[in-house]
């Protein structure tokens, strides 16, 4: 398996050093007046009901408060809602804090919560997160500090999904419109939006009037640095204080350093290869199975990534409710893959594009391409920026890529948040239709009994194993790099809470 490391592209050391020096003046604030964070891409949206991707979430999560949140141990705890209770199988009442103000000084009210829910669940608004909230059919302000949410049936995933519901100010959005709000968002969170230098960085300033724990850093800069070698060099040179998405080789370079260290966490994120089963030859299950058997998943997880990743056989991770023991991954069997491809015949010679973006580990993408080439398939990599990649994914089946490498996290730690959007036929992310799977997914999100839910997800896992509309690869371990003085605990749901960070002088 060690030979798989040959898929790694050469380090861009000279370019990385040059760019890190170019950034150094901005990143070396002596008393940490400025915390500098290097992301892979700039956010595709600062409207929290727009795109759902890590580079956006890392930033806007700090501008807004969510209805509820998770602590560092993963327990759901109060945020805007100080308490909640179930009124019936379909109704839950939330009691809100009465001391929260938006950054413009306006009080956060139950009407803002209702507006937020109505907006994200409105199909006309077109939120990519709609499938995670569309079980909510009514939001009603029932008192000066209470809101009742009604679902279209029992919905056991309501609280885990509401962890991601950022409350927006109705008066601002109604006044300026969604485009202007995206460019200059107003929230109630621990940090305020300051500026967005497109393609370069987003700057936030501390909200000194925040109701909760205040941030340690007066200013925070999120920079777009697509090349991982450059991010690492920035960290080592002191030009960045926190960087995302390093690989195990880069983490090893930080071992023994007195100025920086790797920060590693097992996440709920699952790496997978999505297949557009609506297009030939991928409409043939033999072709899909051949691709699954052609990929050496252990070689990817242990030989290339080697950061604590775990091979999985289902579209879920052990961090999710809905993980089922005993669903084995597809075996690595290139000879059987070749035999299946031969059965498919001439259609198997159809060229296929593999969609990717710099946010993903290109060693993995290149390895998958090589493995598929080795069994006789014609696969070309199509690299786009993250914003374009997201748009290309959320189109009709005919326009969608044939193959897509991705990693999915719902930040909810429930299988509904990953399996429903990727597998249900109603989802804009799904390239497959199975009435049996649709019914099981709907049952999984509609019954309160945990054993019944697990039975439903077991059926989905088994059908997916048989029909191969998507190929699970591994549970992702995320590697950050941090300044040795930065005190921060990464979490399984990959939320970057700035007000949970501190600096040891």
UniProtKB/TrEMBL annotation:
GO terms for cellular component: ATP-binding cassette (ABC) transporter complex; outer membrane-bounded periplasmic space. GO terms for biological process: peptide transport. Keywords: Signal. SUPFAM superfamilies: Periplasmic binding protein-like II (SSF53850). It comes from the Bacteria. Residues 75-427 form the Solute-binding protein family domain. Residues 1-31 form the signal peptide. InterPro entries: Peptide/Ni-bd, SBP_5, SBP_5_dom. GO terms for molecular function: peptide transmembrane transporter activity. It is found in: Periplasm. Belongs to the bacterial solute-binding protein 5 family. PANTHER family: PERIPLASMIC BINDING COMPONENT OF ABC TRANSPORTER. This is Peptide ABC transporter.
């Amino acid at each position: 398996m060690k030979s798989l490391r040959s898929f790694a592209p050469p380090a861009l050391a000279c370019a990385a050093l040059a760019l890190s020096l170019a950034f150094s003046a901005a990143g070396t604030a002596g008393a940490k007046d400025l915390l500098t964070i290097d992301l892979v891409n700039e956010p595709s949206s600062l409207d929290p009901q727009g795109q759902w991707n890590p580079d956006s979430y890392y930033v806007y999560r700090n501008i807004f408060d969510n209805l509820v949140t998770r602590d560092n141990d993963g327990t759901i705890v109060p945020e805007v809602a100080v308490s909640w209770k179930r009124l019936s199988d379909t109704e839950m009442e939330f009691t809100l804090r009465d001391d929260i103000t938006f950054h413009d000084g306006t009080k956060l009210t139950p009407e803002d919560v209702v507006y937020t829910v109505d907006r994200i669940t409105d199909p006309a608004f077109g939120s990519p997160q709609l499938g995670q909230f569309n079980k909510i059919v009514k939001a009603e302000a029932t008192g000066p500090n209470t809101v009742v949410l009604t679902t279209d049936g029992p919905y056991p995933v309501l609280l885990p999904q509401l962890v991601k519901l950022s409350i927006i100010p109705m008066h601002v959005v109604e006044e300026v419109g969604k485009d202007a709000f995206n460019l200059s968002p107003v929230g109630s969170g621990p940090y305020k939006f300051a500026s967005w230098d497109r393609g370069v960085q987003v700057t936030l300033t501390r909200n000194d009037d925040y109701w909760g724990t205040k941030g340690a850093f007066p200013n925070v800069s999120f920079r777009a640095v697509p090349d991982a070698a450059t991010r690492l060099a920035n960290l080592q040179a002191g030009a960045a204080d926190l960087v995302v998405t390093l690989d195990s080789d880069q983490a090893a370079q930080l071992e023994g350093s007195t100025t920086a260290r790797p920060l590693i966490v097992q996440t709920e994120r699952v790496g997978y290869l999505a297949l557009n089963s609506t297009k030939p030859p991928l409409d043939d299950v033999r072709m899909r199975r051949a691709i699954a058997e052609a990929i050496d998943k252990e070689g990817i997880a242990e030989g290339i990534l080697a950061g604590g990743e775990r091979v999985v056989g289902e579209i879920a991770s052990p961090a999710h409710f809905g993980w089922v023991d005993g669903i084995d991954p597809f075996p690595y069997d290139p000879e059987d893959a070749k035999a299946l491809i031969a059965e498919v015949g001439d259609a198997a010679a159809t060229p296929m594009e593999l969609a990717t973006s710099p946010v993903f580990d290109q060693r993995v993408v290149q390895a998958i391409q090589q493995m598929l080439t080795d069994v006789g398939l014609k696969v070309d990599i199509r690299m786009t920026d993250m914003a374009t990649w997201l748009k290309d994914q959320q189109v009709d089946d005919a326009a969608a890529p044939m193959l897509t490498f991705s990693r999915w996290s719902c930040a909810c730690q429930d299988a509904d948040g990953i399996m429903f959007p990727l597998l249900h036929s109603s989802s804009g992310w799904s390239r497959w239709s199975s009435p049996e799977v649709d019914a099981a997914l709907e049952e999984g999100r509609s019954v309160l009994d945990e054993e019944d839910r697990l039975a439903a997800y077991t059926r989905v896992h088994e059908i997916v194993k048989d029909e191969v509309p998507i190929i699970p690869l591994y549970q992702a371990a995320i590697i950050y790099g941090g300044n040795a003085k930065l005190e921060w605990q990464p979490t399984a749901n990959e939320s970057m809470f700035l007000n949970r960070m501190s600096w040891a002088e």
